[in-house]
Amino acid sequence: MSAFRAACVQLRSSDDVSENIRVASDLIREAKAKGADFVATPENTTLMAPDGGAKLERSFPEDTDPALPAFRALAEELGIWLLIGSLAIKVDATKTANRSFLIDPKGRIAARYDKIHLFDVDLPSGETYRESNTVAGGGRAVAADLPWGRIGLTVCYDLRFPQLYRALAQNGAVLLSVPSAFTETTGKAHWHVLLRARAIENGAFVIAPAQGGLHANGRATYGHSLIVAPWGEILAEAGTEPGVIVAEIDPALADAARSRVPNLHHDRAFEGP
User: Fold this and answer.
1) Where do the structural domains in the chain lie, given as residue ranges?
2) From CA 91, how far away is CA 77, in angstroms rounded?
3) Disulfide-capable partner of 36 in 31, 61, 92, 245 (CB 3.0 to 4.6 Å)?
4) Residue 145 neighbours by CB distance under 10 Å
5) Which of 32, 90, 156, 184 is catalytic?
């Protein structure tokens, strides 16, 4: 497995799908100009709506979504692997899927992943989220082969469920993608420690592009896109502004970390409390 250069695109998406496609495309081009072979964008790449109803109204079925042809053509033009962190894909009259797309350098969709864990919370700050009201949760873990190793696909709130990452790592994933739109409140408290924990406990690189800053709908997201090494070192970090971060990824470091701490082979069955 050879080394490669990975990039995270950080966005501050709005409810204007066309504008979000334009901004994301410009930053993907910037990532390629910085030498990236693999580029990842955040959750809700093309749509951050005021509420679930507005998101549903502005969403499309996969076969008519305007973002997919644009991003597929861009991946082919630039000759890169492109992970679109998630798009809101309308699956019926009342719900969307929060769907991640992995696109290969020929513009083909190599993998799809629907976010499994849905964000239904009441935060101490007064913020309330009920993602399950308008989003259909996925039911299948997804991993795919890149030229440099296997990648496991996840989205945002999945980060709090370590069993998903364990399953992906034990299926051979040495890279874990976590495109996100963490709230400012939860991001400040948990973002760094959770991403580093998922990297360390699985001996895997974590690539986590994020939404950041104050959006037009009034929502504040944390930003701080991260690329984390298997031993837990932060290789690259963004602030809160839109932009691009890049890091060199050597998949051999995942094997090295797993040799030093071979915990992926030490799981044991046990009786419950």
Assistant:
1) 4-264
2) 29
3) 31
4) 12
5) 156
CA distance 229 to 232: 5
| φ, ψ at 241 (rounded to 5°) | -85, 155
Burial class (CB in 10 A: 0-12, 13-18, 19+), 93: exposed
| 176, pLDDT greater than 80 | yes
User: Kind and range of the H or E element at 33?
Assistant: helix 17-33
Q: Which one of the listed residues 55, 90, 95, 115 is annotated catalytic?
A: 115
Catalytic residue among 43, 90, 131, 184: 43
pLDDT digits 0-9 by tens, 18-51:
999 999 999 999 999 999 999 999 999 999 987 7
Whether the predicted pLDDT of 183 surpasses 80: yes
Task: Give the whole-angstrom CA distance, residue 76 versus residue 60.
Answer: 23
43 has catalytic annotation: yes
pLDDT at 261: 97
- Indicate the CATH number of 4-264 among 3.40.570.10, 3.40.50.720, 3.90.1640.30, 3.60.110.10: 3.60.110.10
pTM of the model: 0.96
CB atoms under 10 Å from CB of 149, counted, come to 20
At residue 159, the 3 state secondary structure works out as: helix
Cα 86 to Cα 97: distance, rounded to the nearest angstrom = 9
Lookup: tokens for 20: 């979000």
Assigned token pair, 43: 């959750």
Residue corresponding to tokens 């924990």: 197
Sign of CA dihedral 184, 165, 100, 36: positive
Each residue's pLDDT tens digit, 250-263: 999 999 999 999 99
3-state secondary structure of 188: helix
Q: Tell me, yes or no, if 115 is annotated catalytic.
A: yes
Compute the distance between CA of residue 160 and CA of residue 157 in angstroms, rounded to an integer. 6
